[in-house]
From TrEMBL:
PROSITE patterns: FORK_HEAD_2, FORK_HEAD_3. Residues 1-13 have a biased composition (Polar residues). Residues 566-578 have a biased composition (Acidic residues). This is Fork-head domain-containing protein. Residues 14-27, 153-168 have a biased composition (Low complexity). Residues 1-42, 149-204, 294-314, 555-578 are annotated as: Disordered. Residues 28-37 have a biased composition (Gly residues). It is found in: Nucleus. Residues 364-437 bind DNA. The gene is FOXP4. Residues 364-437 form the Fork-head domain. Pfam families: Forkhead, FOXP-CC. Residues 186-198 have a biased composition (Basic and acidic residues).
Amino acid sequence: MMVESATETIRTTSSNQNGVSSLSSQSEGGGREGGSNGDTNGEISPVDLLHLQQQQVCVCVFVCLCVCVCQQQLGSKQLAFQQQLIQMQQLQQQHILNLQRQGLVGLQPGQGAVPIQSLQQAMCPTDLQQLWKDVASVQSAEEAIKHEGLDLSTNSSNSTSYSASKVSPQIPHHPLPNGQNSVHTPKRDSSTHEEHTASHPLYGHGECKWPGCEALCEDMGQFIKHLNSEHALDDRSTAQCRVQMQVVQQLEIQLAKESERLQAMMTHLHMRPSEPKPFNQPLNLASSGSLLKRDSEGFPEGLPHPPTSAATPITPLRQGPSVISSSSLHGVGPIRRRNSDKFCTPIASELAQNCEFYKNADVRPPFTYASLIRHAILESPDRQLTLNEIYNWFTRMFAYFRRNTATWKNAVRHNLSLHKCFVRVENVKGAVWTVDEVEYQKRRPPKMTGSPTLVKNMISGLGFGSLNASYQAALAESSLSLLNSPTLVNNSTGASLNMLHVGHDDVSSTVEQVNSNGSCSPGLSPQQYGHHVHVKEEPAEMEEDSRPVSLIASVTQNLSMPGDERDMDEELPTEELE
DNA sequence: CCTTCACTAAACATGG
DNA sequence: CCCATGTTTAGTGAAG
């Protein structure tokens, strides 16, 4: 039972962690580009491998933490924790070596601390991209393909009882559609939205969409050239196709699992799936293992959709969110959803889980402009961005923001000016925007931070899921911060301490806590940036955010409980808290 | 029903 | 003049 709980936790954390990592790396690229619109990722190097390794170590951190928490009460027996951590790390390193040696696929389920199947099941599209990079980096693909373990179609069927979504293991003798488009999914390229996207499923937004490639191609001709030269029918491409099959299969399995979980949750909550609002459409999204397949019917209406657009939303990549967290479920429709703020939906978590989805699907993100801007800024290396960099972040992270630019850019500027929490700083290189975290927190209703009734609700029932999700997201993000912060990589106890500081809120505050090298200051004072600061007056101030210790206590209380079914990796619909 | 919030649109100012 | 940036106001709809 404990093992099951831990495994489930691994899934959750792995998903979050990897997504967040991707997010961060993207941001760093954006921070450097300074106005130019260039995606600079796509390098395949040992760094990628190291990246994966770090991610998995992070999973270990979380697992170990949970084990410690559950068995020994939180905060005690740090020595045992560290020993377990080291043990897990060693196992993970073995696992990585196996990946390298066997072309990523020959693992026996018992090898390594986390079987690759578990990882794959937990993988969000970002993970898969990472996976592909690793595959591409394996030079001995020829050996790998001779290796019998490469036959991916046979080594995963034991993981669950879901067998409906079998994918034919046959290797097509022609270039396959993009993995995200899935092997068995008919291509829907008739969209008039983006001709270059429609013209080839492996080409979009000026880059090659071959898994793990992302090579920049100026036009279709160049792309075709690239495709024929780099992704010709050879052993490596064949192996990648096989892996992609596996990926699709795993995604379907995971989708089925999540769907079942959702059904169980709804059953538990006495909700009928057919209820018109607010769940029926998300149910379609989540419950249909067939969403991926029947995507050609068009995007489900329940998905957030661009309200001002007459164009049919398209999903250039069909990977969809492997796990659409409920934060995107409870607020379908326009971006105007206070929930994400009011109930402290961890935007970082949501983005982490569905990062690839938002990048490629023309779906409006379920966050307010303010929260998105804040996230973009906090994600940047210096936690400051020029307006143009914010624009770039939007367009890079969300396919939706690649059009209607006038509208949303105006909205961005409007938000920057309107909200007191965004502080314009005259820098050496011009004006940059920063986030005054204190002001941002002030904006937030005190529901999650102090209301005794809310805390009570959270402890007693549904709220646990929400809190737990926030906590897990915070864990994921703080782990990421550890990865990004060399000085803290080895400081696992520091990590766990930092993790315990959060659990209430948008996880970005965690980023700050960790990034500021352990400092628990709630936010950066704009004066730190110091030259020229425009002070804005925001008309209505909400109640002061009194961050209670009691909430943290409740977190620890909850963590000490057995995992059982409460290990939901998504938040329950916040409406249920009302 | 009222208020608050978020989004959209637009006008306007400023500086390069 | 154009464009990017920044500020401000007004209208609208959703939600509390």
